[in-house]
Amino acid sequence: MGNRNGKPSTYVESVLDVVGETPMVKLQRSTQPGVTVLAKLEMQNPGGSVKDRIAKCMIEEAEKANKIHPEKTTIVEATSGNTGIGVAMAAASKGYKCIIIMPQLPPMQERYLICRKFGAHVHLTAAAKGMPGALDYLKQTLAANADYWCPTQFENPDNPKAHVENTGPEIWRQCKGKIDYFIAGVGTGGTVNGAGRFLKKKNPKMKIICVEPTESRVLVGEQHTKHTVLGIGAGFQPKFIEELEPGAAFKEGARGIVDEFLHASSEQSCEWATTLAKNEGLLVGPSSGAAAKVAAEIAARPEAKGKTIVFISPSSGIRYLNHPLLWADVKGEAAAALPAPPNMSPDAPLLGWDSSKAKM
Question: Where do the Tryptophan synthase beta chain-like PALP domain residues begin and end (predicted)?
Answer without folding.
Answer: 16-313
